[in-house]
Write a structure and sequence with these properties.
The structure is a homotetramer. The first copy, chain A, is an alpha/beta fold. Chain A contains 12 helices and 18 strands. In chain A, α1 packs across α10. The radius of gyration of chain A is 23 Å and the shape is elongated. β3 of chain B pairs antiparallel with β4 of chain C, so a sheet runs across the interface.
Chain lengths: 421, 421, 421, 421
């Protein structure tokens, strides 16, 4: 797990607490009989280094936020600014607005100076004070601009596409011999980044979805044969649906992308739902937006501005199929549909996420000041790490259907229906 | 304002506090020069009477909840049961399930006995423990059933249609010489019942919509030219939209049924929205579901099971019109659409509504025990009253566009666009 | 109810909506047999007047906040500034910091300019951006300062003492022939101002106290013979204790200043508490801070900086007496004591209070611009009014032990113990 | 790390998912240069075993909750009952009431049968439906009782003392040849159990303390030289104070038991506080209840019913010292004191803790059914484990003042004052 460094560290770190650059954290912590101890990743432990690469008073840093909203982005921005300013003495910090488009001087506004006063209270609001957008930027023009503005460090807060873009910026800068530290902070409310056990915003989302489920349960429970169908975030991974199911204990069926569930037939989901209604007269169904995409497999794939495949709308599909099926089966029912995504991703971070954001941000600052580049901050086993961006492309994090987490979902719902094999 | 009574009160009220049956509350409290004092309604003041009509140990009471969910229904049920039980000594209290259909023994389940234990904690949950449904019941069969079960008092918790149904039940019972007290508690989250200054659930809804607006504002504010469009409850009246606008202070345009706003043209809403975006780069729009129905006037009207006209979807319409207009005008924007109704009406009552519910319910009990019938509990000038159900049909409560409330909306939004005249 | 005016209104109101200066609102709305209609207060209806006294571009306004914190103060400040600025065109608005001491140039800081940008988000925070303090100011020096700064209008946000101080400022200014409009906005979380049916902050307090009661109930309910004792605000009036009792439905004993309850003896509070514990094994007691002061009557009275009498600590007294009594009676118990005042008064206003604040503030602006002075904004029967400050001194608002509100408390608690007669 | 087992597993586990009994999780995951890999704990991985010791239809289980309240206890109770009932088919589940005293038939009530219906909604409330108490039980009498009631499994939810008591129960049962599985679920809101990275309730507490800090900040910020002093839980460890400091970002001084801070002198805390006030005019101080006990070292130590040393009241002490110091220094200030512990520990679990509780509980069931005894459920590196109770006595978890967590506190507060060395 080699981490690229901009060069030899040349300055003393003004902080008094340091992490040994040689410290590593294991990836695998479970030892099973017959295991060979060789096949393990070892990640650099994040934290302040004794010696740093950049001279704080001369260092110029930029921050950019990309992609969809996620609770905690402002906490990250704020902690980056405060750590740079108060702990290292960096004074020139700039916010590029509107995502990567802000790096392009042809379309972007002038970056705004980021001071402790500016960020004082921003963590109490959701969203991002720097605005966000989707989509890439012309890498050459962006690097031209970063060089022209003498930016030494760029913090990229965003998802997969954003981090890949950050890697390209770093490579282009290196090609030109410009010492640019690009350090990413992974932002995905779906919690699906490999080598990051918990992304910020995820737990706030689970908390908010739990409230929605509470409402959904009330709606389903207040009419005879009430069905509440809740679509939540989770393009490739069902962590939000799974977490909220276990947290709320009011969900009866949890549908996630990792589970190729069958709708029809004696053992299909629809039949199981009918049995539940006959038995209990109400049901709560939660579906991740990426669930059930196998029902649409023949359609041509489209992509959004960030390069993510456009998903087919499983919510609308399930709603139509459930209503039609129950009507055919002579079970008059009332279906209430919930699509709360914008109400979830736009809230401020809860306490746990606020803490996570603080550590992600401060460790990003430590890494960048030490001259690390082309990395993002990871998190494993309660330890923050340096992860090469390239590594992300090799691995995706998904729910393991054979894991304790999923078995917790099954225990909580009691669900039982067939899956494709 | 004659209130129908089942007959002479024959028993002493076990409560020590009484309201004089002759006490009245004025409807008009504003005196303007030139007013003549004659044109005033005078409503009976609600409260325990010194003498009551029903003998508590022999009295049998029923409760039914109808129509859509509304915060506080369980509070009302609970307070009816506790007041009957503890303050009057009534022991036979029954809950008819699933709305008016529960009065029909052919389709309804057996009514469930309501005890203090059963209702102990129900006020902490949203929804209704008695379930609800829409639609009328066969009046004769319902009265047959009420007589067969020897129900003396029926509490009807619901909206206009429910109260009209309650009046029919009472008339049918009277026709047969059966002494049935029907007392309604007005339930409409829209707050649009005449002679009721504030219906329970309304303020909880305003609180919840304010949270949604906070999210909507964050979404709009975090991208360039972000537009957040929020559709809220309010079929005939814009009280929720207006209240949430003033409470949140983050709304820029408030569209209500009472305002026949113009979309197109130099002074239309779309043009005003464009100016706002050019000026501030984001906008929050809130629309009551009954707003803008004049855009659909040529369509044939349809009705739902409760007999309410089906509204055309102003949310979808505005969304399409806004996106098309801004695109034509060369102002690339991002529109986020919010339709949070089920998340709002299903929450528990807040403190203010919990208090309101308690008073509505206990006054309903006092009225019924005193033998009042064909009434609903009203609320004027901080006083609870008896309102003949018939009176409701003559008058609807709507937002007055020339009132302090609406001027508060205009001050809060600064909105300025043309309306049809 | 004569309202003092600074003189004839000389300018057109830029607002298009007006309230007739002759409109009045009745104080008494209940008509009982034998009433004579003469004994009624008639209050001026607040709102924008067609003609105003001050010329907006030349008008200079000041705002001061005094006394204890209360949810909504920032909402009031913000709405005053925005209404003056956007609706009237007043540009010179100043905030005097740290309460009345800010009017004294010898100790106060320079007043700060209040702009729409400054107040943009302040309503989302509790407290007051202008800071607050207790105690009076030297009236002559304050008026010297107001004249020197050419302040035309002073908005005083505070309780009784503050409003009395405002009246003195106006009288001193008038004595010198200086046209100073002093308009008060009543601020008391206790809700005990006569002629104001609901002060802002009160309902937020009830909501927060209800949460505390929920915790108190959990504590009491989780041990055998658990007693939770909650002391809440309410120096002279028990409105907060009463409201939270009815809202939460988990209180068993509510003690308020208006109720001279007896502690000892067979019918005293302690005996009733013991019976409750024997019967149910837990109890929740709420006491307003002004309750039970008759137990301390022999002590010499002391006063705080605002001139309010210092109360004896009923919380500590009850705690000691309850623990001693139950111990003597051989009923081992666990008492948990809650004193949450600072956690309640420091939160932001809820939606209902935010709306109230907005109307109080905007009506204060209308009154001041029209040249009214020596008044505060009142609220009766859902109508905002002008109330001469002098009138406040004649009347206090307290809980009526023979009113529906208190009977709601008794119904909710089932409490039954002796009071002094 | 040998785990005691009641004997050979004799039955097939009805669950389809199993964890290999030989699987282990490493305790140390950080590899530093020069480490030798030998000095590591290896813990059994918790989870369902292929073969189990108890025959579900014949198994009788008991649950007891001890010590102070903590968010999530009801979640744990509920998940134990549901997992036993639905996943294993155990039907005889009993709740012993009022803590360990409930095991003593001389004082305890009859244990109550625990069914899925009984626990249905209990997780939505704070506290414990089984009640709690402090203090030990006569081990012999308790084991007599367990044997008489043919209890096979006892789940002990509580802190250190409770777990030690559980170990004694198991040893006494073994001495008599009775096969009793005692499985503990660690409950400490302070998060200070070794081998448990996160105890349930801790994060909910951090969330609630963050709200309190928000109020404290408002109070301090709304007067000149306002000081808010907040005492929070944390007898031996400052995790709650530290977590809430980082989460809220509004704390200026964080005092924890691990930090032997100096009050007086040029570099002491009081001097640093004074500088802060001169600079910013307000300050927020948070102190764990176990902080600063070195100031009281000469006093004789006392103990509570659970055997914990009684702490001296650092809140009262700091309050008095701060007020005296600032007064002497001629800096008039206003100190607001917050002691919110009962308001924090009595709330329901937030989503994250609800999930934790679910896993702790279900893993306890798996362990017990497999015949493990004398253990508690641990949690390391996102993996649940079996920890011998005896191991707990050797090690306490405290805040490491040289760790990233504490450095996060220092970054968040900027605090700088002397400590004893």
């Amino acid at each position: 797990m080699e981490i690229t460094s901009l060069g030899e560290a040349r300055f003393d770190n003004p902080m008094s607490f340091h992490v040994d650059d040689a410290a590593r954290v294991r990836y695998n912590v479970i030892v099973e009989p017959g295991d060979t101890p060789t096949d393990d990743f070892l990640f650099e432990v994040a934290g302040p280094r004794r010696r740093i690469f950049f001279d704080p008073p001369k260092t110029r840093a930029g921050i950019v936020t990309c992609g969809g909203l996620c609770p905690g982005v402002n906490n990250v921005i704020r902690a980056i600014v405060l750590e740079l300013y108060h702990r290292y003495g960096v004074r020139d910090i700039f916010g590029f607005r509107n995502g990567y488009s802000g790096l392009d001087p042809r379309v972007g506004e002038k970056p705004i100076p980021m001071t402790p006063e500016f960020v004082e209270d921003i963590h109490k609001d959701g969203g991002t004070v720097l605005n966000t957008s989707r989509g890439p930027v012309d890498i050459r023009i962006a690097v031209d601009n970063l060089i022209a503005r003498r930016i030494d460090i760029l913090f990229t807060i965003g998802g997969d596409g954003t981090q890949r873009g950050g890697a390209k910026l770093f490579h282009e800068a290196r090609r030109r011999g410009y010492k640019l530290a690009v350090v990413g902070i992974p932002k995905t409310i779906d919690n699906d980044v490999a080598f990051v056990s918990r992304t910020f915003g995820y737990l706030t989302a689970v908390e908010e979805v739990s409230r929605v489920i509470n409402c959904a349960h009330t709606e389903a429970h207040s009419v005879r044969n009430g069905v509440a169908l809740v679509k939540v975030m989770g393009r490739n991974a069902g962590f939000i649906a799974a977490g909220a199911t276990i947290a709320s204990q009011d969900v009866n069926f949890t549908l996630v992308p990792e589970l190729p569930f069958v709708l029809d037939g004696e053992n299909g989901f629809l039949s199981a739902l009918k049995l539940r209604l006959i038995d209990r007269e109400h049901a709560v169904v939660i579906a991740a937006e990426g669930a059930g995409q196998h029902f649409f497999s023949t359609e041509a794939q489209r992509f959004d501005a960030s390069g993510n495949p456009k998903l087919n709308d499983i919510g609308a599909y399930l709603r139509q199929r459930i209503e039609a099926y129950l009507s055919e089966e002579g079970l008059p029912s009332t279906l209430r549909y919930f699509d709360p995504s914008y109400l979830i991703r736009s809230v401020p971070a809860n306490a746990e996420d606020a803490i996570l954001c603080n550590f992600f941000a401060r460790n990003a600052v430590h890494a960048a000041m030490a001259g690390k580049t082309g990395i993002l901050i990871g998190h494993q086993h309660d330890t923050f790490t340096h992860v090469p961006i390239e590594l992300l492309e090799q691995r995706k994090k998904q729910l393991d259907i054979d894991s304790p987490l999923w078995h917790g979902v099954v225990s909580s719902t009691g669900q039982n229906f067939a899956c494709e094999t």
